[in-house]
């Protein structure tokens, strides 16, 4: 669970800028994530947290700087001393190394739970159907939904849907798992089951970046907390330091509001 | 002021602990009176319908014996067959062309966008009858049709008169017209799918075409199928226009018969009944397809959900 700084980072972001028209959303993000590290990103609404995650798997294109995952620059390739934009096929291949869990679950509604989970392994990673089904059945059981294999997403509660979404993200054996406020769309009594599943993953040594408003989760499960505001990383460090004894006024003010 | 307690005696506390009346209040045993107005309306409508059916059935002018005589006539059946395959082939070609047109129209590529827009604009904007006649008379506009490098030498050339027969003119005319309408129907369907679905598919590393095929289109089908059914039914009837270019479809066949025996109305009735039969079969097929694409929408928990977990979808029928 604890990250060793000696290892090469699995993700490197350098001076990442992103603007939508005139609206500058990310204003120079530097970030290293070590393998097996669990990072919680906190920050007020509109501070650019979702945009940062979406830039990491290239759902948004960045304007300046670079992002590297597993030693490969996202969206571009160095050819000699020329940086060349990748084709959509090559970008798809880079994305396939990451798993993403969305605030609104985004399960495929026309597929059953099992079909949702095997879709990417079979269709993108070329895993044999039989193996994919075996792994998927296992993962679905691990998130506690063994009896829902053949149910359609609309027949499940929000918490169940989000757990399926987590199983779906795990099924591609991702180098890094991205969570964008995975519990924000859930009824309060369903938040616990999803956080419990995520704590389990953190213990297993998965690399996770979790955007969340659940301070409790950040304190217990994260190795590091990053506080973002206005497109900057304002401060970061161990949960016990940042959450208990924040140095910056903006962090203190945010924590006062959410706690 | 009205004395409430005297006008509504049941609301007084002493009327409440009455066991028997509580049992009577159980809604499970409630009677539902049939609205008298509705019954009356039913009777009137059914009477009118029955009378109309009788008037049609007993009217000698419809010539029902003649209808029966010609219903399975070889010429009629041949015409029926032409109508069906012409509609099916044109529809298939229309969908095959309409899909890329819809995708092109939604793309960011300005050239693809405008070519698709221009196509839809022209083929929706002019009468099908005129298009058919133009295709049929293509040899008048372009006597020679040749395959060539743009502005360069010709690779192969054909005489337009050999290439354009009534059949090819009918297929090209109907298919291109159909493609324009299908492009718009498909585009509407694709737009109806939530944006997050495509993004999710791409976030998992699916290439754009795969995301479209596996995630977006199956969901778009819910809103594509009903207007397409409508469109196919229009197509069945639109095939009757090809009789102007001497294509022997159902209508043309019955016309050729009544031009000889002058039984105009009975033979038109033969055509009408056949058209209605085709359309009924189509509607039944359509509702099965609709049910198939609605499968993720059932709210009740289904444990009889298909055991098959194929990624390749099973055929809808
Ligand atoms: N696709 C987009 N187009 C234009 N503006 C966007 C888009 N996505 C996000 N934004 C803007 O970026 C800012 C940051 O958004 P977001 O990253 O979602 O913040 P957070 O997730 O921290 O709440 C907001 O001001 C939002 O309006
Ligand atoms: Mg957000």
UniProtKB/TrEMBL annotation, chain A:
<dbReference type="InterPro" id="IPR027417">
    <property type="entry name" value="P-loop_NTPase"/>
</dbReference>
<protein>
    <submittedName>
        <fullName>Ectoine/hydroxyectoine ABC transporter ATP-binding protein EhuA</fullName>
    </submittedName>
</protein>
<dbReference type="InterPro" id="IPR017871">
    <property type="entry name" value="ABC_transporter-like_CS"/>
</dbReference>
<keyword id="KW-0067">ATP-binding</keyword>
<keyword id="KW-0813">Transport</keyword>
<keyword id="KW-1003">Cell membrane</keyword>
<dbReference type="InterPro" id="IPR003593">
    <property type="entry name" value="AAA+_ATPase"/>
</dbReference>
<comment type="similarity">
    <text>Belongs to the ABC transporter superfamily.</text>
</comment>
<dbReference type="Pfam" id="PF00005">
    <property type="entry name" value="ABC_tran"/>
</dbReference>
<dbReference type="InterPro" id="IPR003439">
    <property type="entry name" value="ABC_transporter-like_ATP-bd"/>
</dbReference>
<dbReference type="GO" id="GO:0005524">
    <property type="term" value="F:ATP binding"/>
</dbReference>
<keyword id="KW-0472">Membrane</keyword>
<dbReference type="GO" id="GO:0015424">
    <property type="term" value="F:ABC-type amino acid transporter activity"/>
</dbReference>
<dbReference type="InterPro" id="IPR030679">
    <property type="entry name" value="ABC_ATPase_HisP-typ"/>
</dbReference>
<dbReference type="GO" id="GO:0016887">
    <property type="term" value="F:ATP hydrolysis activity"/>
</dbReference>
<keyword id="KW-0547">Nucleotide-binding</keyword>
<dbReference type="InterPro" id="IPR050086">
    <property type="entry name" value="MetN_ABC_transporter-like"/>
</dbReference>
<feature type="domain" description="ABC transporter">
    <location>
        <begin position="11"/>
        <end position="255"/>
    </location>
</feature>
<dbReference type="GO" id="GO:0005886">
    <property type="term" value="C:plasma membrane"/>
</dbReference>
From TrEMBL, chain B:
<dbReference type="GO" id="GO:0006865">
    <property type="term" value="P:amino acid transport"/>
</dbReference>
<keyword id="KW-0029">Amino-acid transport</keyword>
<keyword id="KW-0812">Transmembrane</keyword>
<feature type="region of interest" description="Disordered">
    <location>
        <begin position="1"/>
        <end position="20"/>
    </location>
</feature>
<feature type="transmembrane region" description="Helical">
    <location>
        <begin position="232"/>
        <end position="252"/>
    </location>
</feature>
<dbReference type="Pfam" id="PF00528">
    <property type="entry name" value="BPD_transp_1"/>
</dbReference>
<dbReference type="InterPro" id="IPR010065">
    <property type="entry name" value="AA_ABC_transptr_permease_3TM"/>
</dbReference>
<dbReference type="GO" id="GO:0022857">
    <property type="term" value="F:transmembrane transporter activity"/>
</dbReference>
<feature type="transmembrane region" description="Helical">
    <location>
        <begin position="39"/>
        <end position="57"/>
    </location>
</feature>
<keyword id="KW-0472">Membrane</keyword>
<feature type="transmembrane region" description="Helical">
    <location>
        <begin position="80"/>
        <end position="103"/>
    </location>
</feature>
<comment type="similarity">
    <text>Belongs to the binding-protein-dependent transport system permease family. HisMQ subfamily.</text>
</comment>
<keyword id="KW-1133">Transmembrane helix</keyword>
<feature type="domain" description="ABC transmembrane type-1">
    <location>
        <begin position="80"/>
        <end position="286"/>
    </location>
</feature>
<feature type="transmembrane region" description="Helical">
    <location>
        <begin position="156"/>
        <end position="177"/>
    </location>
</feature>
<dbReference type="InterPro" id="IPR035906">
    <property type="entry name" value="MetI-like_sf"/>
</dbReference>
<dbReference type="InterPro" id="IPR043429">
    <property type="entry name" value="ArtM/GltK/GlnP/TcyL/YhdX-like"/>
</dbReference>
<comment type="subunit">
    <text>The complex is composed of two ATP-binding proteins (GltL), two transmembrane proteins (GltJ and GltK) and a solute-binding protein (GltI).</text>
</comment>
<dbReference type="GO" id="GO:0043190">
    <property type="term" value="C:ATP-binding cassette (ABC) transporter complex"/>
</dbReference>
<feature type="compositionally biased region" description="Polar residues">
    <location>
        <begin position="1"/>
        <end position="10"/>
    </location>
</feature>
<feature type="transmembrane region" description="Helical">
    <location>
        <begin position="264"/>
        <end position="285"/>
    </location>
</feature>
<protein>
    <recommendedName>
        <fullName>Glutamate/aspartate import permease protein GltK</fullName>
    </recommendedName>
</protein>
